[in-house]
Amino acid sequence: MHLYAATFLWISCLLPSQVDLLNNGLARTPPMGWLAWERFRCDIDCKDDPDNCISEKLFKTMGDLLVKEGYKDAGYEYVNIDDCWLTHSRNAKNQLVADPTRFPSGITNLSSYIHNLGLKLGIYEDFGTKTCAGYPGILFQMDTDAQMFADWGVDMLKLDGCNVPTELMPYGYPEMGRALNRTNRPIMYSCSWPAYLAGGPKLPDYQAIAQSCNLWRNYDDIQDSWDSLKGIIDFYGDDKGNFSMFAGPGAWNDPDMLIIGNYGLSYDQQRVQMAMWAIMASPLLMGNDLRHIAPESKAILQNKNVIAINQDPMGKMGKRVIKNNDIQVWTRPVMPTGSYAFTIVNYGVYGTPAKLNYKLSDMGISGAKSYLITEVFDGGKIGVHTTSDVVTYTVNPTGVFMGKAIPQ
Ligand SMILES: *[C@@H]1O[C@H](CO)[C@@H](O)[C@H](O)[C@H]1NC(C)=O
Ligand SMILES: *[C@@H]1O[C@H](CO)[C@@H](O)[C@H](O)[C@H]1NC(C)=O
Ligand SMILES: *[C@@H]1O[C@H](CO)[C@@H](O)[C@H](O)[C@H]1NC(C)=O
């Protein structure tokens, strides 16, 4: 077994004063909510598929279920529209228009409905000439469109990056951020900017991104599969350009939607996504169908202990500290002071749970004489251990152990 531990240069030595994060009062912890894309895509066929098409009915239904099924109480707050809500052209006044057959009451009506539930409404646009699905984009219309969103009572904007040269992004994304700010309405700003640079020759300018955006889609869109999930976790583990350094209250890396409750992941793999999104301080935006969801998936999504790690007020993003064939370990400093959350992820498919031995010091956890170690999902006690005690963790095939270590 070859373990290599990364250098534990926690962000605390590269002080937050060196990174400058957007502070518009929003997203002080990673935003939580629901977003249509992963599950409902661009289904605009309300005639033959009225229950699943992109329409005001879908968003009202999901808002109702966030409340009724306990998601709101667990912290999920935003109901977010994605692509395909628009008509194909602007109106005579050059304004964006929601499709009148699918949104007959209009966005203002929808936002009041969502607000009356005690929730917030998010909308989608694209920085380019057209959205990814070919609807009007906001290029050259930023101020009027930002004001329109504010007038409609919108609380969050996801701004995609199709149909525009990436060279314009360093100008356009900050400009739309300023346009949103000028409306004086607090509108959380999600940028797809670095997602369009991933794998390109130049690293995204994460400092500039974190100054303009509350969250930014970093890396490819998630798909409904374990392979897609692993690809995202690996990209975040590699942390090329040290983007983990630019996460904090007000500004978050966004590895895309939670696919828990859909078709592609086993029970254990769903736990992996929830645990990893918590350790990475990721936005928790569910992309599922809240009408049809297995009780065990719902329990994962509403697990209070895991959500508490995700929402930790320090907002430090976790890092991968060990990578060894199928096994990786991530740690994240959390409250109370001196504590850590950690995940041990097993990509292996060897059909019996892996028994893995680690000292806390192997995982970069040190500073106190001993720690109380608990399992996070169930809150079960593992025991009190010094940093040099060897502790055995059992991790299912394509599964995760999530722990917390609190100084004693
Ligand atoms: C606008 O920006 C200023 C300066 O960063 C910030 O204090 C304020 O909260 C922002 N207002 C809105 C509505 O975003
Ligand atoms: C929203 O639309 C519904 C149905 O068209 C209507 O009953 C309701 O009064 C409208 N609400 C507002 C706030 O305009
Ligand atoms: C990332 O951080 C490491 C040390 O923590 C440093 O050696 C490296 O140069 C940094 N890379 C970038 C692109 O900033």
TrEMBL record:
GO molecular function terms listed in the Swiss-Prot or TrEMBL record: alpha-galactosidase activity
Protein name per its UniProtKB record: Alpha-galactosidase
UniProt family annotation: Belongs to the glycosyl hydrolase 27 family.
SUPFAM superfamilies: (Trans)glycosidases, Glycosyl hydrolase domain
Subunit and partners: Homodimer.
UniProt keyword list: Disulfide bond, Glycoprotein, Glycosidase, Hydrolase, Lipid metabolism, Lysosome, Signal
Alpha galactosidase A C-terminal domain mapped to chain residues: 315-399
Family annotation (CDD domains): GH27
Pfam families membership: Melibiase_2 (PF16499), Melibiase_2_C (PF17450)
Main location group: other
InterPro entries the UniProt entry points to: Aldolase_TIM, GH, Glyco_hydro_27, Glyco_hydro_27/36_CS, Glyco_hydro_b, Melibiase/NAGA_C
Superkingdom to which the source organism belongs: Eukaryota
Organism: Lingula anatina
Any one biological process term the GO annotation gives: glycoside catabolic process
